[in-house]
Amino acid sequence: MTQTTAxxxxxRQRAQLRERTLRTDQWWRYPLVTFLxxxxxxxxxxxxxFDTDYYVSPYHAPFTSPCLATSCPEGARLFxxxxxxxxxxxxxxxxxxxxxxxxxFTCYYYRKAYYRGFxxxxxxxxxxxxxxxxxxESRFPLILQNVHRYFFYAAILIxxxxxxxxxxxxxxxxxxxxxxxLIVNAALIVAYTLSCHSCRHITAGRLNHFSxxxxxxxxxxxxxxxxAKHQELALASMFSVMGADLYVRLVxxxxxxxxxx
Length: 261
Fold this sequence. Notes:
Blueprint: H1 29-50, E1 55-56, E2 59-60, H2 98-105, H3 108-117, H4 148-172, H5 177-194, H6 197-205, H7 214-227, H8 230-252
Antiparallel strand pairs: 1-2
């Protein structure tokens, strides 16, 4: 028997299929739907970054929160701060875009989704792929996926800020539909963030004796329950943040009348 090593060509390639697919079901629906949904989200995100109607008191569109430039409306600035100075030549959303985008882009669920939906690597289990070589996430650029755990801390901060925005809107306008839309969005964003695999590991993943750390064990148990719904929370929070952002912009543009907002 020929022994293969970790660096041998046999170990660097996917298992080869003689047939195009071993599946008899409509396996192509998942990557196709994923491609369409993610493409729509990316198109909307790109438009939202350049749209200037992102704030109408007391509502702040999530895609541009926190707003940290002097070009931001005074009520939209986080605690009145404007640490990035006069960035009027760039949309304020560019200043914080990398934090939530980096967290989602490196998320384990999103990796599986866009690897299948965009790169067809592989498009589905038991289906051949067009790539002849496979290196996994061991080389550039995919080795950068390992920074996910650091984006987790940034995502916690963003979740806290969106929660602050939602609570502030609820206090100012408790009967406003927009206030409750922002509350639901903040809850889903925080739940998705806490359901992250990195959060589960940070909470108590490296402990050898749970009995010696009962508080961390209880926290780990809670996070583990959320982690079981990570995929569902990832999708729900993606739709909620886009929906909440669009709603605020419609109110700011006057398309949705404030008496009903």
